[in-house]
Amino acid sequence: MLDYPALAALAAVIREGSFERGAQALGVTPSAVSQRVRGLEEKLGTVLVQRGQPCVPTELGRTLCSHFDQVRLLEADLDPALKPRLAGNETTPTIRLAVNADSLATWFPDAVTRFVRATGLLLDLTREDEGHTAERLRMGEVLGAVTTDPEPLPGCRAVALGALRYAACASREFVERHFPDGVDPASLTKAPCLRFDHKDRLQARWVRETFDCELQAPTLWVPSTHAFQDFALAGLAWGMQPLLLARDHLAAGRLVELVPGSLLNVRLYWNVVRLHASSLRVLTDAIQAAAREALGRGEKQ
Amino acid sequence: MLDYPALAALAAVIREGSFERGAQALGVTPSAVSQRVRGLEEKLGTVLVQRGQPCVPTELGRTLCSHFDQVRLLEADLDPALKPRLAGNETTPTIRLAVNADSLATWFPDAVTRFVRATGLLLDLTREDEGHTAERLRMGEVLGAVTTDPEPLPGCRAVALGALRYAACASREFVERHFPDGVDPASLTKAPCLRFDHKDRLQARWVRETFDCELQAPTLWVPSTHAFQDFALAGLAWGMQPLLLARDHLAAGRLVELVPGSLLNVRLYWNVVRLHASSLRVLTDAIQAAAREALGRGEKQ
C-alpha cells in the first residue's frame, strides 16, 4: 500500500511549487513535508520531485499525484457518515483541468458555476492551447481537458461539445488602410496580425482554409484575451476573435470581418479519465449543459 | 563577428518553438535553418537550442537571441535611406516584453496602442506574474518588464509607474453565507478563495496585511482574468480584483468588499534594458503616459 500522507505532501509541494508553501497549505512544518517526500522517494528508489524554483514533478511523481487526486475523489463518494471520522485537517478535493483561454473567457465559467454549486467541490484550472490540452491529460497533470482531439486518450472518454466559432476581424479603418483592394495573399503578408502565443495557429489556419496559402506576416503577440480584442478594436492588427466575444462589436461596426461570412469552426471535446466518481459525472454534465447552451447556439447562428 | 543570418534562424526557431515553423516564418527551408543553427553551435562549441517540443534555448542561446533583438532595434534607427538596401525579406523588428495579466487586462493595451501607432513596430508580449517578470528580464528572455521590484536589474533602468489597486471582493450573497458574523481569521479558513495560479500571492498578502495571519483556505484556481471575475460575481469564491475592472460591479452592488476600504496597492515599475534605441525611448514614453492616466487616477480615488 502506498503511503498516503506522503502522497498528500508530494501533491501539495507540486501544486504550490515549493516545500515551504506546500507545508503551509497542509498546516505542517516544512521539515515534516520534506521527510515524507524523501521517505517515499527512498521507498520507491527514485526521485519524485526535482527541487528548484518551482519544484517540478518527475514523470512518476506526476503519475502519483494524479492517482492521489483520483483516490480523493473516490473518498468523496463514501458514506457521508464516515467523513467526520476520516481526518480533521482535510482540504477540499480539487479536480485539475486543462482548458483553452477562449473557453475560459466565454462559456466555461458557466460550467464551473454549475459544478461548484452542485457539489461544493473546487477546481484547479490550467490554461493551455486547445491543441495541447490532451498532452496535459496524457501526462497525468490533469483529470480532464477541453481538447480539439475527438479521440479519447487511453483510460479516458471523450464527448463532443460543439464548436467555438471564430471570425477574422479588424477595425474598419485597419481594413481600409491595409486591404484597400480587398484581402488577398499578397496584402496578408504585409498587414500586422495578432497571435496569442506560439501555439496559436488559428490565424494561419484561417488563411490556409480561405486563401490556400501559408500566412507569413508581421505579428503582434499578446497572451491575453482582453488585450487580444482591445488591439483589434484599436486598429493595430487583425486576428481570429471568438464570435461569442466579438458579436456585439461586429453588430455595432467597431469590428468588421476581413471576409464576411468566412468563419472558422474549432470543434471542442471533453476528454476525461474513466473513474466512477460522482463528482466527475456531475462535472461532465455541467460542462455538457454549458456547452450546449453557448456553443450549440453559436453553431446555428 | 557573429553570423547574423544564423542568429536570425536561431531566434525564429526559439520564437516559433520548432525548426519547421521557424523556417516558415523566415521563408526558407527547414534544412537551411537547421544548418545555420548547427553551424553556429559548432563554431561556438556549445548547444544553443534543446531540440524538443517545443525547442527551448540554452542559457547562451537565450543571451544570443536577446543580443540579436537589440541589434535589430539599433538597425531600425539607421538612416531610413539605407533600409531598402539592407535586405529584401526582413521581418519587422519585434520587442519582447513580460507583463502581468492584470496590467494586460487593464491599462497596458493603451500603452501598446500608443507605441504601435507612433512607430509601426510590433511587440511580443509574454504574460508573467508581476513578482516574476524581472526574472524573465534577467534571463534575457525579454528586453523590458513590468515588475514589482523598484531596483533596476544590471544593465537596465527602472521607472515607477504608480500602483494597481486591488479590493478583496465577493458577491453579497457569498459574504452573507460565509461571513455572517463578519470577516475574521477563522471564517477565512473555510470560505473558498480564488487564486490565478501558484505564483499569485495577492489573497494571502491581503489577509496577512489585514488580519496578521496566514491564509489557508479551499481554493478555486483560475488562470483567466475574465473567469476570475466571473467566479466572484457568481458567488463561488472571494478574490483580489483590480479596482479598474471591479469598480462598476462594486458601485452596482454586484460585488462587495470583504472589508470596506481595505485596499491592497501593488506598486509597478517599468524595468528596461539600457539601449540607446529610439524605439525603446518611445516605448518607455508610451508606457509612462498610459500608466499615468490609469494608475495615477486609481491612486487618488
From TrEMBL, chains A, B:
<dbReference type="InterPro" id="IPR036390">
    <property type="entry name" value="WH_DNA-bd_sf"/>
</dbReference>
<keyword id="KW-0805">Transcription regulation</keyword>
<dbReference type="InterPro" id="IPR050176">
    <property type="entry name" value="LTTR"/>
</dbReference>
<dbReference type="Pfam" id="PF00126">
    <property type="entry name" value="HTH_1"/>
</dbReference>
<dbReference type="InterPro" id="IPR000847">
    <property type="entry name" value="LysR_HTH_N"/>
</dbReference>
<dbReference type="InterPro" id="IPR005119">
    <property type="entry name" value="LysR_subst-bd"/>
</dbReference>
<dbReference type="Pfam" id="PF03466">
    <property type="entry name" value="LysR_substrate"/>
</dbReference>
<protein>
    <submittedName>
        <fullName>Chromosome replication initiation inhibitor protein</fullName>
    </submittedName>
</protein>
<feature type="domain" description="HTH lysR-type">
    <location>
        <begin position="2"/>
        <end position="58"/>
    </location>
</feature>
<keyword id="KW-0238">DNA-binding</keyword>
<dbReference type="GO" id="GO:0003677">
    <property type="term" value="F:DNA binding"/>
</dbReference>
<dbReference type="InterPro" id="IPR036388">
    <property type="entry name" value="WH-like_DNA-bd_sf"/>
</dbReference>
<dbReference type="InterPro" id="IPR017685">
    <property type="entry name" value="ArgP"/>
</dbReference>
<comment type="similarity">
    <text>Belongs to the LysR transcriptional regulatory family.</text>
</comment>
<dbReference type="GO" id="GO:0003700">
    <property type="term" value="F:DNA-binding transcription factor activity"/>
</dbReference>
<keyword id="KW-0804">Transcription</keyword>
